[in-house]
Amino acid sequence: MSAPKRKSNRITVGDQVFRWRFHYDEDAPWQKTVSIVADDDLNGPSLFARCHYDNDVTPAIVRRLLDVAFENGWPPISDEPQDFGLTDERIYDCFHGFPRLLDHRGNRFSWYPDTKGGLHLKIKNTGHPKGQLLATNCTLQREDCTEELAIAFIDAAIDLGWKHGRARRDCFWLEEHICSLVLDTLRSTG
Hints:
By secondary structure, the chain is an alpha+beta fold. The chain has 2 domains: 5-93, no CATH class; 98-189, no CATH class. The chain contains 4 helices and 10 strands, in the order E-E-E-E-H-E-H-E-E-E-E-H-E-H. The chain has helices spanning 59-71, 88-95, 147-159, 176-189, and strands spanning 9-13, 16-25, 28-38, 47-52, 84-85, 100-104, 107-114, 120-125, 133-136, 171-174. The strands form 2 sheets. A 5-stranded mixed β-sheet has the order 1-2-3-4-5. Strands 6-7-8-9-10 form a 5-stranded mixed β-sheet. A hairpin with a 2-residue loop joins strand 1 and strand 2. It is globular. The model has no long low-confidence stretch (mean pLDDT 87).
């Protein structure tokens, strides 16, 4: 980013301070580009995200971008100042409110839609970052991706043995027929 501090905004995540700013093309003001860099290493690796987005970029969007970048291995301080980018799908999710958090069964879960192999949900217990990930084995529509659906998938997965609090490297896949039953039940009651 290498920008003067006076032309950027501050955000603190944990004990780390970051500088961020957004740009838009005058010919396409709906196209927003966000650049983020660690405050104590302004010439270090930058995080870039570009998305078609009609509204203002908020600190909540920047925070989601940072959280997702950390999950994907972004080193905010490094001897090699390489720029870091996220996939278009993850950027879209961050700009449009994902990952989202919900409190359920005495735990806090984060969840977001993932487009790899057809749109499905990925859910994780935030209190156990190395806990087993839940992935739904079904293809959803964007409008299906609600907190109510995430809760229903969590309940079904826990009932079937999902170990969200145990450190696991594998993923718990909620089978397609279970996902379809949950989805059909919610659609019929909604």
